Amino acid sequence: MKAHDILTRQQIIQLMSKNNVRATMLLVSCWAWVFAALALVAIWPNVLTVIIALLVLGGRQLSFAILMHDCGHNSLFKSTKLNQFVGTWLTAAPVFSDMQTYSRQHSIHHKDVGTAKDPDLANYAGYPITKQSLLRKVLRDLCGLTAFKFWFYILKTRTNSQNSMVTNTALSRGLAVNLALFLVCYLLNVAWVYLVWLLAYNTTYFLFLRIRHVGEHAAVPNPTSKDMFENTRTTLSSWWERLLVCPVYVNYHIEHHLLPSVPPYNLKKMHHWLMAEDAYKGTPLPSGYIAMLRGVLV
Questions:
Q1: Averages of pLDDT over each 10 residues, the chain, 298 residues
Q2: CA pair distance 98, 101, nearest whole angstrom
Q3: Would you list the domain boundaries of the chain?
Q4: What is the 3-state secondary structure (H, E, C) of the chain?
Q5: What residues are paired with 287 via a beta bridge?
Q6: What was the pLDDT predicted at 34?
Q7: How high is the pLDDT of residue 165?
Q8: Separation between Cα atoms, residue 71 and residue 88, nearest integer Å
């Protein structure tokens, strides 16, 4: 089923309309949460505030990865140049990602989702899994083992920019932006706070990234179908889930696959319009990510 089979031409035009103010608010709010979490630990350094910061920072780091994805679609800002700059420096670089490489691979994902050609297939093909297997994956993420594998792969392949997930240039940008963040902490006489950001990146970020991947395509009704309502999942979310595991509207994933050029801030409206047209009949819409995770277990 295609978007134009459900929505009117005027609705599609409205959904694809970009708004620089709303895009800027998303970007600024993500960075504001980062500095608020770091300030919380700097002002009240204790176990509880560190745990809160790790959760919030992991969620904001995921939001940077998602906004990079949106900039790669050229769907966040009106200007292509602005999407390229923000996507490269303000969203990809903080989390050591390469927007250009990611965008090339991601276009294949949209074209061949659920098939052997999908570069994201490894993130969801093994589901459903047992509860014990899921628990082991979560523990690996929180212990930093998943991040270790990521860094090992990056350092192993960085000499070949064609095969690497992160090119040498992108890695240099990541180091530069992270150095800038460290220097801000240093100049404020709380250099150690940067370690909380780094710890979040190597633990909670990879956990939330895993949950995002599982939520989008794992154990869907028909992963090899060409119908987005069968090969992709939308998960309804609460406020705390939007803060952590599904920031910047990423939970509306059926909607994104139906119209990849729709800006993230218009996906909720698209969801409501599709609901009004009864487009989801027969399509599971889990109420929250805990329910979603239960649905991918055997």
A1: 91 98 98 98 98 98 98 97 98 95 92 92 95 98 96 75 71 96 98 98 98 97 93 97 96 98 98 97 96 98
A2: 6
A3: 3-294
A4: CCHHHCCCHHHHHHHCCCCHHHHHHHHHHHHHHHHHHHHHHHHCCCHHHHHHHHHHHHHHHHHHHHHHHHHHCCCCCCCHHHHHHHHHHHHHHHHCCCHHHHHHHHHHHHHHCCCCCCCCHHHCCCCCECHHHHHHHHHHHHCCHHHHHHHHHHHHHCCCCCCCCCCHHHHHHHHHHHHHHHHHHHHCCCHHHHHHHHHHHCCHHHHHHHHHHHHHHCCCCCCCCCCHHHHCCCCECCHHHHHHCCCCCCCCHHHHHHCCCCCHHHHHHHHHHHHHCCCCCCCCCCECHHHHHHCCEC
A5: 236
A6: 98
A7: 66
A8: 9
Claim: this prediction has a pTM higher than 0.70: yes
* Separation CA 236–CA 285 (nearest Å): 7
Q: How far is 205 from 176, CA to CA, in rounded Å?
A: 20
**How many residues are recorded in the chain?**
298
Closest C-alpha among 212, 52, 58 to residue 124: 212
Give CA–CA dist 130/252, Å, rounded: 26
- Which amino acid, one-letter code, is at 128? P
Closest CA to 170 of 157, 187, 152, 184: 157
Q: Which two tokens stand for residue 116?
A: 């052997």
In a 10 Å sphere around its CB, with 0-12 CB exposed, 13-18 middle and 19+ buried, how is residue 116 labelled?
Answer: exposed
Q: Which residue has the tokens 């608020």?
A: 36
